[in-house]
UniProtKB/TrEMBL annotation:
TM segment ranges: none
One Pfam family of this chain: CBM_X2
Natural source organism: Actinoplanes utahensis
Secretion signal, residue range per the UniProt entry: 1-26
Keyword entries, A-Z: Carbohydrate metabolism, Cellulose degradation, Glycosidase, Hydrolase, Polysaccharide degradation, Signal
Protein name stated in the entry: Cellulase
Amino acid sequence: MTRLLGRLLALALIATGVVWATPAQATPARAAPSAAAITRAMQPGWNLGNTFDATGADETSWGNPRVTRELLANIRGQGFKSIRIPVTWGRHQGPAPDWTIDPAYLARVQEVVGWALDQGFYVMINIHHDSWQWINTMPTDHDTVLARYNAIWTQVATAFRDTSPRLVLESVNEPQFAGSSGDAENYALLAELNASFHRIVRGTGGGNTTRALILPTLHTNADQGRLDATVAEFAALNDPYLIATVHYYGYWPFSVNVAGGYRFDETAQQELLGTFQRLRDTFGARGIPVILGEYGLLGFDRHTGTIEQGEKLKFFELFGHQARVSGITTMLWDNGQHFDRTAGVWRDRELFAHISTSWHTRSGTAASDVLFVRRSAPVTARTITLNPNGTGFTHVRLGDTTLRRGPDYQVSGDQLTLSAGLLQRLTKPAGYGVKASLTLRFSRGVPWRLDIVTFDTPSLSAATGTTAGYAIPAVFNGDRLATMTATYADGSNAGPHGWTAYKEFDRAFAPDYTAGTIRLTPEFFAEVTEGAPVTLTFVFWSGETVAYRVTRTGDTVTGTPGTDAG
């Protein structure tokens, strides 16, 4: 009963805007940069992901190398001004009631933070995967969770109390609660954690008196209810050194390539635009600075090729522009899939060029980065739509050669037409695949690469295999797979995500262009009815579709081309 009354009081205080002023708030120990100034100075930022947030024995347990001074210097050299160092503490804590953090682990975090500060970074540390490992049990184990949480922040805040003000602290990553009664309780629990974090850090004095503190929304989600609840917390705490944080991984069907979301289409664009509008209207309009502590695409966690290259580039171009005009600081999520921490290079330099350019200006794009030309048909002129994004289209280049307007291409408004003569020359070499890469040049930003690809309709062959490793023999003929649908004879959806016919790329199916196969995963067959033929329709980027039928009998899978095979 006492605990319930405490939560209700916390909610009432937030709702009425009552402020608990601490002595540190009333008389700051020293002047400090404003939260808004710190937030601006942190743009752009990068995440040292899958390192200290790993839940294994040490920072290498999720496959990344140990952090070195050289790595941090290299990241600084890429143009980043801040670094988020996610930290999972639970595995490195002793038992109740003290919950003592392993001194060696804390010292290692301090060492890396010190190196980053030496490089001139702003540095953010937090409580990370503890959020879903044990903090989420707060509805049913309130006192234990709160005591353990408080113990972490008491030790961490004390350890860093005299550290440079360029260190900022984030209360908890992606807060979530299991078994709660609903959002009202979730908001109350998060407000309690954030208020406790705030009280503990400020109470340790020293540099923590005015250190910038980062408070997340529930799930670090930007839905309106989450934002409104965080605004109420800010009003209750009444501290000028607070910064809000959310994460953004895009419109989910696009972000993982499921449910037909394989293009950065109008729906995906509007979802992104709506998110930034809510952040501006809810936080920006109230003078609350915002750090977008993680951003990217969720499909990257499995494979960076889950989303087609041109579609992902359009996403990051628009995202960067919206963040810049909204005055929101962004921190790229990188768990090792973007910057090669051993070789010291970007795995996808084209992607990083678009990301880094968006910090300063816009780049022109186009409806696609691939133009498919059928090998078995006469070559004709082809038109694609340009997206100038406020720039001006200037010219087309092939390598170091500037193509001729008129004989090689024409432009009318946002329509670029490549002549039949140009395409005939470019596609003359035998075989399938990329025959040339044009660059479409705009008045500023990154040039847009347009691959000219020769293709014919892909063909699939019959195969027998098992649910553990079934692969369809495929001759791709230069084409590229975009998505796949799966349906039963009655038209109902087959396989995982039964609410849609379109299955998830790389989770239910994946092309292997080198091996000449399309793999269907055990996860796909786990949700396929035994003995019921499933019609698969493979959708290719050229616009071609190819049908195939598979039937699971126990652990055995048989498949044949076409919809009439049985």
